[in-house]
């Protein structure tokens, strides 16, 4: 089935990469100064090597994929979602362009779940997005670089 809309966003912000670089620097510095202790060998390997490597890989492969076809609005935030989450287009009651407020609403980028459990956010890049209202009362904010095209593809009546 052909897609009416498709977008893939990747994590390319500088701040998370600087954080990872700081963790790697601290880890390598610790190993250089102290070596890997025989007493706490597993702890040292886990904290100083495996944890930064895992964070590196998560950042490298972190992406938000959005697809709209004739029946479904689909999104996947990899590596947290292995399969697309599907919402039938007839379950969407409204969609509006919104500007994402990282501090007040969701406290950062990624998968945000604020105090209200009926509202979820999926963002990777930028401050623009579409707030989708579902017929069951739930709302989803999807970050996109093409909010108008996304709304047009939803074809809400």
Could you characterize what this model shows?
The chain has 157 residues and is an alpha+beta fold. The protein has a domain at 87-154. It is 35% helix and 32% strand. It has helices at 14-34, 41-61, 102-106, 147-154; strands at residues 5-10, 63-68, 72-78, 85-88, 92-99, 110-112, 119-123, 128-134, 139-143. Strand 3 and strand 4 form a beta hairpin. The chain is elongated and about 60 Å long. The two termini are 22 Å apart. The mean pLDDT is 83.
Could you write a compact summary of the structure shown?
This is Bacterial Pleckstrin homology domain-containing protein. The chain contains four helices and nine strands. It is of the alpha+beta class.
SSE inventory with pairings:
Layout lengths: L4 E6 L3 H21 L6 H21 L1 E6 L3 E7 L6 E4 L3 E8 L2 H5 L3 E3 L6 E5 L4 E7 L4 E5 L3 H8 L3
Parallel strand pairs: 7-9
Antiparallel strand pairs: 1-2, 2-3, 3-4, 5-8, 6-7, 8-9
Helix pairs in contact: 1-2
Keywords: Membrane, Transmembrane, Transmembrane helix
Protein name: Bacterial Pleckstrin homology domain-containing protein
Organism: Pelobium manganitolerans
How many β strands by DSSP? 9
| Number of helical segments with 4 or more residues | 4
Q: Largest sheet, order of strands side by side?
A: 5-8-9-7-6
Biggest sheet details: 5 strands, mixed
In one word, what is the shape?
elongated
How far from one another are the termini? 22 Å
| Structural class assignment | alpha+beta
- Estimate percent helicity: 25-40%
Low-confidence segments, ≥5 residues, pLDDT <50?
none
